[in-house]
Amino acid sequence: GKPDAAIGLAKACLVMALEEEAVAQQDVVGRPPRTGATAATWSLQRLDALAAEVINVLHHEHPEVLVLADGSSSSTPDVSSETGGSAAVTQQISKRPHVLASKFPMQVLSAVNSVLFGRQGYAACNRYGTPSDSQLAAVLESGPGSCAALTVLYLEVCSRLDLDLGFKVLEGGRYCLAWPKGQGEQQRPLSAAGEACVLDVYGKGALLTVKEATELFGVTTEELFAGSSRRELLAALLSEQQHSHWCAAIGCSPQPAFMTQLSAASAVKQHVRQLNGSSIERATAAAEKRVALLPGDLQAQLELALLCYFSGRYEDAWLELGSYLEAARCAAATDDAAGTAAQAAATPQLAAVADSAAVPVPSRKTAAATAASLAEAAEAATSSTAYGELVDDDVMLLFEKLQLELMLSGAEVA
């Protein structure tokens, strides 16, 4: 696959938004066509224009931050993102001065905050259940956005100003913090009043001390600055969309405290009585993309299996659950082997699983082949404490229920 650093966040977000838009156009009869006034939000021009506006602010407020191509200080004319169209934006980019972002990060970030959250009015959505809040094109067009969407916007504008930011996805994708990167991917937290700080993009670019951040989100300093990958940030966007579509599909409140959770218990105990077909399909599509981005993420794979089940795709659900259970067995064996190497060596079956723990999550064909042996190995596997923590009883009940239903329907499940 493509290296993480080579993934274009903005392009990936726009492709995902186009897919959502195509489905929305089918669902809404009489939806007005997109106009030329909003076309820039479906390209990179809008991001280029925002960066040009930041340079204009820097030219007026911090000219020492800008250097022309000939090495002289900035004396560029105003660069406005409001006029001139795409041709003007292209001309602005070609004449854009160099930004000494590594030398003056606070001044650059202050100008970015002024443009994005002051002049342009981008802001935290502070709500749940609206898929467009996690679509970059919609956020560029309307203003409010989820934390992950605003983080992508912030990262993309800063990258056009020669300021690369590291970031950490927190709370299962619901929150993100950022900070400037140094040379060679070295992390360089900001400093204010002698305290190391990070950026709270969702809080309009406000600064949080590292101490506040670690206490608030329950992570260590090392975990915080280990950062997250671009795949994880894109998966966070998809997680928000999946959550919104799931709630719309079953007609429950999108508020985390009141929603019906997507879980094996909801399937086994039949907590879901009715479904909106279009919304459940869109939730499943988001889950499939998440698994593609994070192939080793057990929770993402379990949620995809559950959405396949609720969509009526029982064979797909059975295969995905089989892959999930096999991956959980491998993960549990790895954990057990790390703490009890002697016991793993004395138990042939656990040792065999531990030897194969480094193998990636099985393909769908592998899942079908291994699913039949799962029942035989269940007793030995579930004796592992680590496995019991990863897989609850409802997941096993759902897997067995699906296997029985498929056998009764004449499907090949072995």
Describe the model.
It is a single chain. The chain has 18 helices and nine strands. It has a three-stranded antiparallel beta sheet with strand order 7-8-9. β7 and β8 form a beta hairpin. About 6% of the residues have low confidence.
What spatial form do the alpha-carbon principal axes imply? globular
| Multimerization status | single chain
Gyration radius from CA atoms, angstroms: 25 Å
- Unreliable segments of 5+ consecutive residues: 81-86, 350-354, 356-362, 377-382
Distance between the termini: 31 Å
Give the DSSP E fraction (strand runs of 2 or more residues). Answer: 5-15%
Helix content, binned percent: 55-70%
Mean pLDDT: 82
H/I helix tally = 18
Tell me the layout of helices and strands:
Elements: H1 9-27, H2 45-61, E1 66-67, H3 85-94, E2 98-99, H4 105-119, E3 123-124, H5 136-142, E4 144-145, H6 147-159, E5 165-170, E6 175-180, E7 190-192, E8 195-200, E9 206-209, H7 210-217, H8 221-225, H9 230-250, H10 264-268, H11 277-293, H12 298-310, H13 314-339, H14 341-346, H15 348-355, H16 364-382, H17 385-390, H18 393-408
Parallel strand pairs: 3-4
Antiparallel strand pairs: 1-2, 5-6, 7-8, 8-9
Helix pairs in contact: 2-3, 2-4, 2-6, 9-11, 11-12, 12-13, 13-15, 13-16, 13-18
